[in-house]
UniProtKB/TrEMBL annotation:
Enzyme Commission number(s): 2.1.1.107
UniProt xrefs under SUPFAM superfamilies: Tetrapyrrole methylase (SSF53790)
GO biological process terms on file: methylation
Gene3D superfamilies named in the record: Cobalt-precorrin-4 Transmethylase, Domain 1, Methyltransferase, Cobalt-precorrin-4 Transmethylase, Domain 2
UniProt-listed InterPro entries: 4pyrrol_Mease (IPR000878), 4pyrrol_Methylase_sf (IPR035996), 4pyrrole_Mease_sub1 (IPR014777), 4pyrrole_Mease_sub2 (IPR014776), CobA/CysG_C (IPR006366), Siro_Cobalamin_biosynth (IPR050161), Uropor_MeTrfase_CS (IPR003043)
Originating species: Thioclava electrotropha
Gene Ontology molecular functions: uroporphyrin-III C-methyltransferase activity
Full protein name: uroporphyrinogen-III C-methyltransferase
Pfam family, one: TP_methylase
PANTHER family: S-ADENOSYL-L-METHIONINE-DEPENDENT UROPORPHYRINOGEN III METHYLTRANSFERASE, CHLOROPLASTIC, SIROHEME SYNTHASE-RELATED
Protein's pathway: Porphyrin-containing compound metabolism; siroheme biosynthesis; precorrin-2 from uroporphyrinogen III: step 1/1
Length: 250
């Protein structure tokens, strides 16, 4: 009797935010068995080093505002390799279901009649919040958490700005470095305080991680300092800074 794993031709998995210790056991096993690993540019070298010796590594090269492999070409490559009988691992930074275009690749596999499974990964927002010593949700503070993209197919992404401007609101903004001033303006137009805490976490969980505390007033300037991939956390500050602020008030 075949198991789900033996029937599967393609696995779509999350590599986590970059620290290999945050890779799930299931994804590690698949990396060790795959014939071909199609990975995003943001998957760290430390994670890729865990691939089995037989695995062919192919970078699919999707970067913000830079040279990118078209999504249709990536989906076609996944299908072709699977049809050739290869055991294919599509490895995405973070979680494949969080702004990872997972649905488009699943549609291509469905259309080709190719079996697949999805393995989740730790998304950047979780890793970034952990680096601050903060919880993404907290009783008495926020009853919801929003994961947003700074850009969509139409350009700068529109959001529910009124909800995001409420005191206590928490959101993680992916691909938001070039949208920081736009976000700032929209939130202030809807009544958000310039003193609203924020934080820009660059290279979350990696050895070169940088945490940049900010407020809504300083967000564009602070965000511009980040050179690597960064997630913007609205409504959160590093715990040590928050503690210092409380002590100053007392």
């Amino acid at each position: 009797m075949e198991t789900l794993e033996t029937q599967t031709q393609v696995t779509l998995a999350g590599a986590g935010p970059g620290d290999p210790d945050l890779l799930t056991v299931a994804v590690l096993r698949e990396m060790m068995c795959a014939d071909v690993i199609l990975h995003d540019t943001l998957v760290s070298a430390e994670v890729l080093a865990l691939a089995g010796p037989q695995a062919q590594l192919i970078e699919t090269g999707k970067t913000g505002f830079g040279p990118s492999m078209k999504q249709g070409d990536i989906s076609s490559l996944i299908v072709r390799l699977a049809q050739e009988g290869q055991r294919v691992l599509r490895l995405k930074s973070g979680d494949p279901g969080v702004f990872g275009r997972l649905g488009e690749e699943l549609d291509a596999l469905d259309a080709a009649g190719i079996a697949y499974r999805v393995l989740p990964g730790i998304t950047a927002a979780s890793a970034a919040a952990a680096s601050l010593g903060q919880s993404l949700t907290e009783r008495g503070r926020n009853r919801e958490l929003r994961l947003l993209t700074g850009h969509d197919a139409d350009g700068l992404a529109e959001q529910d700005w009124a909800a995001l401007a409420r005191p206590g609101a928490v959101a993680a903004i992916y691909m938001g470095k070039r949208a920081a001033r736009y976000v700032q303006g929209r939130l202030m137009m809807h009544g958000a305080s310039p003193a609203t805490p924020a934080c820009v976490v660059e290279n979350a969980s990696r050895a070169d991680q940088v945490i940049r505390p900010a407020t809504l007033a300083t967000l564009p300037t602070v965000t511009a300092e980040a050179k690597g991939p960064a997630v913007i956390l609205l409504g959160l500050a590093p715990r040590d800074a928050r503690t210092a602020l409380k002590e100053a008030v007392l």
